[in-house]
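To: structure desk
From: M.T.
Subject: fold request, one chain
Message: Could you run this one when you get a chance? Sequence is below, nothing fancy, just the single chain.
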Amino acid sequence: MERRTQLPSEVAILIGEPETLSYDELQHTFQRLIRDESWETQNIPGFIAKAGAWVQDHIPGQDPFIKPWMIYRANDHYALDITRARTVLDWAPRHSLRQTLPKMVAALKADPAGWYREHGLELPSALKKTAASPEPTAPAQGCAMHACPMHPEVCQSSPGNCPPCGTTLEPSEPAKTAEYTCPMHPEVVTREPGNCPKCGMTLVPRGDSMQHGDEHPDMMVEDHRKMLWPHYLNLMLGLWLLISPFTLGYMSDFVPDANQLRVMADRGLPAFELRNLLMTWSDVISGILMIVFSVLSADAWRRSPWAQWANAFVGLWLLLAPLLF
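Reply: Done. C-alpha cells follow.
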C-alpha cells in the first residue's frame, strides 16, 4: 500500500511462501509431532490409488478420509515465484510453514476441541464423543462477567482472550446440574451420560437440541454401523444361494428309483427335472435379491430402510419354496 503510487496501473505480484513442503515431508512431520513416530511412505501408481479410493468411498457403512478427488491433486505443485515481490516491493515472508507447524501441533495437542472451534472446523467424530462427555468447568467463584472455559481462574469484567491459552473468554453463568436426554425419546432424562433404555441411542445434554440437531444424523449413522454384521451375513448367504445349485448339482443326471417315481405319481408332483429347474432358478434369483437388499440395508445413511423387510420376505420364500416345488 505504501508503494502503490510507484507501481504501474496493472501489475501481477505473487505473495506467499516460496518453499513448498512435499506430501511426504508433511506426513512425516505430522506423525513425528503428533504421534512421536514416523511412518514410511509407499509410492503406488496413480490409477491404483484412484481405484482404491473409489472402492473405499463406496463400501457400505464407511466414511473414509481419502476421497478420489484428492488423488487427482496429489501431484499438484504450488511453489510460488515471489521474485517480483522481492524486487518491486522489497517484500519477504516473515513466517514459514516448516517453522510454524510445531507451534500449530502443540496448540492442537493442548486443547484439540478448542483448536477446532477456534479455527471454525467441524469436530471429528472421536472428538465429538470426548467433548460431549466432560462437563465444562464452572467459572471461578465470584466471577460475574467473562471467564476462560479452560482456565476458570482467569476472570475479567470485559471480553478478551485468555492469557495462558488464547481462548476467547465467555460470559460466565451460574453452574447448572447437567441433565441428559434421548433425541428420539425426550421423556428419558438422567443426570449421567449413557444410552437410552428404549432405543439404545447415545444421550445428549438436555436443552441443547438445537446444538445437537446437526449431530443427530451422525448419531443415527453411528448406531447403524454398530449393527452392520447381520447385513454382511445376509450378503454372504446370498452369495452361497447364488452358487449352491451348481455346487450341489441340482441339474445333475440323477434318476429317481421306482419308489420315488411311485410317490411322485401318487401325489401328482411334476417331473423330477422340472422341479430341479424351478429350485435352481428360485435359489439363484433369491441369492441375487439377497445380495442387492443386503447392500442397500448396509448403506450408512439408511436411504433404503425397506430393503431389510424385503430380505425378510426373501427368507420367507426360501422356507416355502421346497414345499411348493
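Reply (cont.): The mean pLDDT is 78. Let me know if you need anything else for the meeting.
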